[in-house]
Amino acid sequence: MKQENIILEKSYLFSVRIIRLYQHLMRERCPPRLADQIVGSGTAIGSNIEEAVGGQSRRDFVSKCSISYKEARETHYWLRLLRDTNYLTAKQADSLLQDCEELLKVLTAIIRSSKESQ
């Protein structure tokens, strides 16, 4: 039986939510540049984690997780900006921000523990 990988699953589900957010933003006539930014950074979190799992070395793994962390920070920024410019309600943004913050915490722990075991 395949072992469950929490960060892979959470980041994938977050990407699904981000794509749905993008669809919502396009319907709400959000500037395409903003919508493109959030979908780019929000889905890059999971794609970089997926790459990290297939990394060639621990150093490669940490590097990809670090990129994923940076993408999550960027996504956090865009979510706050969309909320504060009223493209998202506080309720919509808070749910996504909470998920994003959880990914940031898990990624921080993964990066720290991976660096310590090098």
From TrEMBL:
Domain of life assignment: Bacteria
Record InterPro entries: 23S_rRNA-intervening_sequence (IPR012657), 23S_rRNA_IVS_sf (IPR036583)
Regions crossing the membrane: none
One Pfam family of this chain: 23S_rRNA_IVP
Name of this protein: Four helix bundle protein
Organism: Hymenobacter jeollabukensis
